[in-house]
Design goal:
Rossmann fold, globular, 302 residues, 12 strands, alpha/beta, 6-stranded parallel β-sheet, two-stranded parallel ribbon
Length: 302
């Protein structure tokens, strides 16, 4: 099975490449700039056609949530128009597309975990651009899996885990928001889930359960709880540690509003694909252990 994943630098792309390493049954090819640039939609089909994929994973995106408020046109071009072109390319090539989306399509007003049928209501440009991207993907290719995830971290790229470790190396105390809740999700687990789902799509020519799925880490916490676990784990492995002070969202103003509740129910994905994410604490420990062990220590400074 040959998977083409859009983007070269993203956490999911890097995790997919690593997950496929040493396996004879799957090959992952990252296709990114300059050959494929979602800001230039005309580059999408030629680059993906050249990759000769069996399945396309649409992972590249504009992800700067705050900057998107000032770069609306670019965010929409990449996350909506570009995503639609990726799905269209997959349709033209006769293959399914697995598209990554986000919890930011919701406004966070619900008290429980969001399910796929809940009404969407993004709070900002980033979430709106990703929701429009979902619609474009669904319209362009009926053979689509749209996977909404949240609070993604990994040994690769920039993310909350590495930010906490970097800050703890220089500070005794870190202030972290305590009134936003969600599911920390390892990109390593996302990659494993994608490979599992892709194998199902490849093996089942009559697969009919295409559509939207939630895919997030098992269990929930708030940002400060997530930070405490990261730093407690780091200290256990001899790494940097700092105390965490709870603050409110109002104490840490940002350009874009964040949903207070980003909890996602992954039950549908579990039922259809018979795959369940590990508990978020376990996956966090795995990533922190790797970073402390030096496998990707160079990324700590990123």
């Amino acid at each position: 099975m040959r998977l083409a994943v859009t983007g070269r630098e993203g956490q999911v792309a890097a995790s997919l490449i690593e997950a496929a390493r040493g396996r004879d049954d799957v090959q992952v090819l990252a296709v990114g700039r300059p050959a494929l640039d979602l800001a230039r939609p005309d580059t999408v089909f030629p680059a993906l056609e050249a990759a000769r994929p069996d399945i396309i994973v649409s992972a590249a995106a504009y992800t700067n949530v705050d900057q998107a408020e000032d770069e609306k046109d670019l965010a929409i071009t990449v996350n909506a128009t570009g995503a639609g072109k990726v799905a269209e390319a997959a349709a033209r090539l006769g293959v399914p597309v697995i598209h990554l989306s986000t919890d930011y399509v919701f406004d966070g007003a619900k008290h429980g975990a969001y399910v796929e049928t809940d009404a969407t209501a993004p709070l900002g440009v980033y979430g709106a651009s990703k929701l429009t991207g979902e619609e474009a993907v669904a319209a362009a290719n009926p053979r689509h899996l749209i996977l909404r995830t949240a609070w993604v971290y990994s040994p690769f790229g920039r993310n909350f885990v590495k930010t906490m470790l970097r800050l703890a190396a220089d500070r005794d105390e870190i202030s972290v928001v305590a009134d936003q809740w969600g599911n920390p999700t390892s990109a390593l687990d996302i990659a494993d889930a994608i490979l599992h789902a892709a194998a199902r799509l490849q093996a089942d020519g009559n697969f009919a359960a295409f559509g939207v799925y939630h895919l997030a880490g098992e269990g929930e916490t708030n940002w400060s709880g997530f930070a405490r676990h990261i730093l407690d784990t780091s200290r256990a492995f001899g790494g940097p540690y700092a105390m965490v002070r709870d603050i409110a969202t109002a104490d840490y103003p940002t350009r874009a509003r964040r949903p207070a509740n980003s909890r996602l129910s992954s039950v549908r994905f579990e039922d259809v694909f018979e795959w369940r994410a590990p508990q978020w604490r376990e996956s966090t420990e795995r990533v922190v252990r790797r970073l402390r062990g030096g496998e990707t220590r160079r990324a700590l400074s990123a």
